[in-house]
Model the fold of this input.
Amino acid sequence: MSNSQFNDTDHPVGEATQLFVNASQVVTCAGPARARRGPEMNDAGVRSKAAVAVRDGLVAGVDTLGELRARFPDAHEIDCRRGVLMPGLVDSHTHGIFGRPRYDEQEMRAAGLDYMEIARRGGGIHSSVRDLRARSEDELFALARERLTRLATFGATTVEVKSGYGLTLADELKTLRVIARLSGALPLRIVPTFLGAHEIPLEYRESEATRRAYVELLVREMIPRVASERLARFADVFFETGVYTVDESRAILTAARGAGLLLKLHADELTSSGGAELAASLGATSADHLAAVSDEGIEALAHGSTVATLLPGTMLFLGKSTHAPARRLIEAGVPVALATDFNPGTSPTPNLPLVLTLGVSQLRMSVAEAVIAATVNGAAAVAMADRVGQIAPGFSADLALFAIEDVRELPYWYGDNRCIATFVAGKACHTSDLGLT
Ligand code: NIG
Ligand code: FE
Done:
């Protein structure tokens, strides 16, 4: 399938030639245009005396200032004020289209109710579904525009956004149209994912037959329609005990693949159920969560090309003391990405640098590994590693500038927002009052 609407031509490019000068570090993440594994993840390409040239929205050179001034004598110079210049962050897993925030459930969990128990009582995802169905496209667009803009203020320039709180053909299409409108309205790059299999809707939970009917609806109507209207690039399923079974997940993703969509899977989030193995066997682009992944699951991922997208903010917010085994995944050679999982139930944070903090402090990743996980490997998790995620000639000039002197400060000042500005294809996407001349 040609996804023409996702081309870079959607984005206006910045002024003809720009030089980003006076950065204390340029973190290039330069290297092969694919997910990094094992020791490769430990090299973020930190350069302390480099400037970056951008022409027509693409990186044209990374070199000493003298060299670049000689090559581009008429370039407009942007002063990085001794900050750290990085590839724009890639948030490869969000559920950004929802209505009411679910702060009530946070207190319920504090009082001892489990996330899945809240769902069994009709709360959780079901509560967001009732809410989203009652809202208009315009209302959802306005809410999501503000929320995705918050993600950009923390340094994200590419954001994957899932549907999944509609769960009827009309409400899923409504959600995906909101995502398409946001793509045109925001300077961010947005990657749309169809998650009609986020839950079995309550009205289909009565019997095995109605449950099967919803899976049939997904396979026979929703997926073909979403694919023919080109409203999504990926399809995803919440494969979890009490939600979709292994056979249902396989059937849905196989249909999606047949319709030309790329695959993602919510895998082994809360219970170990063979999610990683299923994602690897289907050739999914990413397997996400993996807090409960088994040894066999790690093994399966190590032998395939699926990116393991870890979402430690979710475990933190749910009050769990376990985390995905990032070290074992990396040591087995599995490419690891980090993302926010921004959603109203399990991870309402727009702060991807905070997720890097969790990556280092909780998942025991090095800073370089965490940086690669939120740039190159995040890009690979949305099948864009050939265009974004590194500052290297020919890549899109998607950049994030932080008010820190050393990249190790990014996960260190946890919860703080040091992002001064972001650029997409060389054009300012977000600028903060931390100041940039
Ligand atoms: O990634 N696990 C399923 N989906 C989300 C939670 C969605 C919700 O609770 O609204 C997640 O954690
Ligand atoms: Fe999720």
